[in-house]
Amino acid sequence: MFLLYLKSFYHYSFHQLCADGGYVLSVPIVTLTTDFGDTDVFVGVMKGVILSICPQARLVDLSHQITPQDIHAAAWLLQSAMDYFPCTTIHLVVVDPGVGTKRKPIVIRTPRGFFVGPDNGLFFPMWKSEIARWTGRDDLKIVEISNQQYCLNNISQTFHGRDIFAPVAAHLANGVSLDEFGPVLENLQSLTTPEPCLDEPNNLMGHIMHIDRFGNCISNVHIEHLNRLGGADRFSVFLRNIEIGPIHKTYADVPVGAVCAIMNSSGYLELSVRQGDLQALLSVDRFAPISVVKKQNLNVAKPADQR
Checking CA distances to 47, which of 27, 177, 201, 239 falls within 20 to 30 Å? Predict the structure, then answer.
């Protein structure tokens, strides 16, 4: 009992220095992101496994409403959320159309946390970004989960979220070293995603990467891209061959029902309808092309799908 008390005290009192220089309390926080929805018991069962191994874990649901098997959506949502958590957070992501195949189960360590899930590409955009952000650090590591000591006894072919990923996340929360789970890997399964690019000297081409529940269409064009070209107020936005207009500061800058472009809370260019649904209005699909055009170039600029 005394040892259990010491173990609990360790989790709630030990402070760790984060990569950005700040200190956070090392309470074990585990986030969960899946495509399981909330109709079945899958998410609840995973939480039960985690709490059976690490009762003191704090569990945070990021989303369980990802479209089934949508690896791109999982990758985007993970990157959108991870920077708002302490650097010791364990991010458990299960969107796993290849469950039961030869795709590897993995754990990743970066200066922004731990990541547990399948090596099917969903972690690749995050890993690519972290490598660029923290070049040269020794706490960037990928490990294959091969030590079944840290998995459930009977591993099914269809529910690795319960049998592998949840228990591994829980053991990580209990302080098990990354090296205990298996061998180091050099590379991840890649995932092809479009990147913003300059088309003409001052015209930026991008794509819609995520459509939220309001029908807002979020692109991969970040405020930093626009700042390098003189600032967001210098541009007008096209979706396919439709002019959305200049980039506003808030939805309220346009009348109710009007389309608008804004920089959203994560710094990405978002196309919306004030108090409406742009996706439904314009039948927007993910990866739809957008053009961000300097206003003085409007007479000569062509929208992305006309090139």
Answer: 177
